[in-house]
Every structure is written in C-alpha cells, then in structure tokens.
Design goal:
Elements (H helix, E strand, L loop, with lengths): L7 E3 L4 H10 L3 E4 L5 H6 L7 E4 L9 E3 L3 E4 L4 H5 L2 H6 L1 H8 L4 H4 L4 H5 L12 H6 L28 H7 L3 E5 L4 E5 L19 E7 L5 E8 L10 E9 L5 E9 L6 E2 L1 H5 L8 H11 L13 H20 L4 H7 L7
Parallel strand pairs: 1-3, 2-3
Antiparallel strand pairs: 4-5, 5-8, 6-7, 6-8, 9-10, 10-11, 11-12
Amino acid sequence: MMRLPRFTYRAPGSLNEVVDILASDAGAMVVAGGTDLLPNMKRRQQTPAVLVGLRGVAELKQVTENDGLTVGAGLTLADVLDIPLVRQRYTGLWQAVAQIATPHLRNMGTLGGNLCLDTRCNYYDQTYEWRKAIDFCMKKDGETCWVAPSSRRCLAVSSTDAAPILAALGADAILRTADRERRVPVVDLYRNDGIDYLTRQRNELLTAVHLPDATGWRSAYWKLRRRGSFDFPVLSVAAALRFSNDRTVTAARIVLGAVASCPLAASEAAAALVGGVLSDAAIATAADLATRPARPMDNTDFSLIWRKRMVRDLVGYALREVRGDDVRESRRRVSRAALLA
C-alpha cells in the first residue's frame, strides 16, 4: 500500500489567509480536490511539508457575469458543468469539462486543479521503487529524460483538458499574492517544459478564470483517449471561431493539447480560416496546417506517429461541429458520447 508522507495540514477560511501562508512558507502547497496531488504525494513525486486546504475559501467558488463570465478556480468540475451560461455560450468548455475523469472525480476535482495539473509521462507516473530502479528521471530525482535521453529538458506532456479550450476562448487566469493581483491570458500561463510548466509563481494562487463575451463565437472540444469513460487525453483539439452575420469567419483560434508540455496554439491553421467561409476546403487546409506544430513524443499511450496523424482528423471534426454539422456519429465513435450542448 502506498502511503502519504507526513505533512502539516492547514485549513484557512479566507483568501487572504491562503496567500499569507504561501508568502511566509516556501514549503507549502495548496490542495483543493486532491485528485492529482495526493496520488503524486503517495508516489513521492511531490512531498510538501505543508498542505493548505482550499475547501473552506468561499471567494474561490464565486461565479460572476460581467463583460463575460468569471468562474472561481475553487469550483468543482461538476459545479462548472452546472453553470447554465457555460453550456449555452462556452460550449467547448462544457464539452472539455464533461470529459474529465469520472463523475466521482469531477465531484472532487476543481477547475483550478485541472488548469494546474502536473505534466505526465510513462516514466514519471510510476511508484517510487519503479522510478528508482531506472535511476529516476529528469523530472524528479534523476538527470535523464528517458523519453529522449539526449534531450536537455523534460518532455513530460500536458494533460489538462480545461487549458486548451480556455486558451482557444481567449480566457484570462487571475492570480493573487499577498500584495497584488494580476491577469494573464491562459495561453501564457504555460511554458513548454515538463518540469517548469507553469509561469505562475510559487507564492501565487490561481483564484479565477475570466471568459470574455462570447457573442458571435462558437466553440468545440474533441478528445482522443483509449477509454471513453475515463482517461487522460493523448490528443485534444480546442477550436473557437467568431462569425459575422454572413457566416464569414472574423476570428479563429485552434489549440492542441497533450502533444507537448504545454497547450500548443495552431496559429497558422487558425489564420487560414479568417476572412472566408468555413467550407470543406477551408477545413481541410486548416486541418493540414494544424499538424505542423504537433510533435507528440513517446511519453504516453498509443503510437506517437498515429497521434500526430489524428490531429488532422480531430481538427476537422471540431471545425465541422463549429460550422453546425451533425457530428453525433463521429462523437460517439471518437468520444463515446454525444456531448451535445
């Protein structure tokens, strides 16, 4: 049986208390649902001396409609699914959250937790004894990235479902310290490094996510995984497009997940759609262009060559859904669920 290491647990009742603890204790980490952190602690991947529980912090669970929608990072994933405006206006976000883990884990895990999800790898997500037997890896206790031994950086993969779609929707992350608050685009919350994958500072707390006004925008999220009911993505595609009254695409964002250590913006593919209608030819061109930035590594399930090939297919599915096509059969085949908002 894997047991948790010893730690001190603190349960502050306000946001100010949380950021004060983070400012004063360099060994502290926050925990909300614990669905990622606690298993990592059992594997000794993270061993914080102090855990700061966020369950009692009401400020992290607020939802505000003001020039868009602001969603508290402490809301459970199930809570996010129950927000009517998420399903009505930010369909892609609703689809992404609905595909995270299982109902039990969505009742525990939080939006902020999924955004800050630790990067994953076949060589890293193992027991301490297994990792010790291979002389550990670069991400924890070792010096070699076993995915690519000549690599100078860790290639562990970003497996968050919420980040790609929030980046595609143009959302901002709201970060708080003891003396200031700042907003950064979600796309800038990450860096392509399996170890140092967040630009959030150690003493900063992710408090909320702000989604801009969705007037004229349509979005979709597609996820590839082995098991349709419960799995991390091995590839995901988030697409958000804004249309004029004559159905011309006036803005577009396509973001790929689970093919790098951070969500990857397929900027060239998105730019190719702007200024025209979303025809079959335009979709095919964008799908081809989207494969260029995708360079999946052999650090998760399925063949990396097949995962790269599937980028084209999933981008095509997502764009056809945004256009308004009936994609229910493809959804059932790829996602094992209709996911119709």
